[in-house]
Write a structure and sequence with these properties.
single chain, mainly alpha, 5 helices, 78% helix
Length: 83
């Protein structure tokens, strides 16, 4: 086996909108990666509406934070970055 199927799969994983969002955020805000991932985890744990209310944020802002955190986690998993 030549390993090409793995390379093809990895290439397809990096060719997604979620990966692009994560890569862009990681490139522009490397100092905020842990914070946005932690906030996204809190949103997952508490629920979107409860988190937004606790943080005095709109549902839209909470959703954007959630998606950004998920995108960063996805990017880090695919790219293999530990940061």
């Amino acid at each position: 086996m030549s390993g090409e199927p793995d390379a093809d799969l990895l290439g397809s994983l990096t060719d997604t909108g979620l990966y692009a969002i994560g890569a862009f955020f990681a490139d522009r805000h490397p100092d905020l990666l842990d914070d946005v991932v932690a906030e996204a985890q809190a949103i997952e744990d508490e629920g979107l509406a409860r988190w937004a209310q606790r943080e005095d944020a709109t549902l839209d802002a909470a959703f954007q934070t959630l998606v950004t955190g998920l995108a960063v986690r996805y990017y880090k998993a695919v790219a293999g970055t530990a940061e």
